[in-house]
Design brief:
- This protein is α/β, with parallel strands linked by helices and 279 residues long.
- The chain has a single domain, classed as P-loop containing nucleotide triphosphate hydrolases (Rossmann fold, 3-Layer(aba) Sandwich).
- 45% of the residues lie in helices and 11% in strands.
- The chain has a 5-stranded parallel β-sheet with strand order 2-3-1-4-5, with helices on both faces.
- The radius of gyration is 24 Å and the shape is globular.
Length: 279
């Protein structure tokens, strides 16, 4: 009797069935390509309608915020999708209103601003590490919901993400950064402190959620132990949160080159400093 061959499921179906397994690179890249195509549609809609969007990315160190931001920005214009990752405040900035250093980066019409860490530093690292006083912290917790309500009242869409990573996975990623010279720039003294003070950061997060998870600006938690799934899930959710529509765009035609004044324009380059063909 001929041996029956077990039918195999298509890659896409298999990826959907195996929710706990690792996504295949092919499936991940196919889905990412679709989502990035939608981000381009979103970009045209934002420019056309003059929408103002702020996206806040918070979470534990090594939770994958930067990876998601990179995938969002890969295929869109940096003039529309702007990434803000501020360094520690200067002495002058410390004397200003706390929100002041962030306000100047807020979007004008037709812009999406993404904060890779934001004013919520005050509720997180500053609170845990003692970089702010208790009075400053309490004042922030009181004013943050009201401030975000003002944004909503002024037609600015605020979307807040918290990336959550487990203890074991965070440790694995930190060790990977230590071992890989290409990633060592990602390590800082604050990273090692956040590793040591896991539960202090957990309590700070819980207190922040309790006060600032509001109807005007809710928090969305992204489980990120699986980086690929976290990226797809976050971008998909982002697209579902913004009420954009695909706009009809005129077809682009190259036309014909103007050959008037034609000359050998390659020869002059050969006399210049050419990058050596090493590869």
């Amino acid at each position: 009797m001929a041996k029956k061959h077990k039918k195999t499921k298509p890659a896409k179906q298999a990826a959907h069935d195996n929710k706990k397994g690792k996504l295949s690179r092919k499936y991940y890249e196919q889905e990412l390509e679709k989502l990035q195509g939608e981000l381009v549609k979103l970009q045209f809609w934002v420019r056309k309608t003059g929408a103002k969007v702020i996206i806040v990315f918070e979470g534990r160190d090594a939770a994958g915020k930067g990876g998601v931001i990179k995938r969002i920005t890969e295929r869109v214009s940096p003039r529309v999708f702007k990434v803000i990752a501020l360094p520690a405040p200067s002495e002058r900035e410390k004397s200003q209103l706390y929100i002041q250093r962030y306000l100047k980066h807020f979007p004008a019409a037709g812009e999406v601003v993404m904060f890779d860490r934001s004013w919520y530093n005050r509720a997180g690292v500053e609170r845990v590490m003692g970089f702010c006083t208790d009075r400053e912290y309490q004042r922030f917790m009181k004013l943050a919901p009201a401030f975000e309500r003002v944004l909503a009242d002024n037609d600015t869409l605020l979307i807040k993400y918290w990336f959550d990573v487990s203890m074991d996975e965070q440790q694995r990623r930190f060790q990977d950064r230590i071992d890989d010279e290409r990633k060592q720039w990602k390590l800082s003294p604050m990273d090692t402190e956040s590793f040591n003070r896991w539960y202090d950061y957990s309590r700070a997060r819980d207190a922040m959620f309790e006060v600032t998870d509001t109807d005007d600006a809710p928090w969305h938690v992204v489980p990120s132990d699986d980086k690929k799934r976290a990226r797809l899930n976050c971008i998909s959710h982002l697209l579902s949160t913004i009420p954009y529509k695909e706009l009809t765009r005129p077809k682009v035609k190259l036309g014909k080159r103007d050959l008037k004044g034609k000359y050998d324009d390659e020869t002059p380059l050969k006399t210049r400093r050419i990058v050596p063909a090493k590869y």
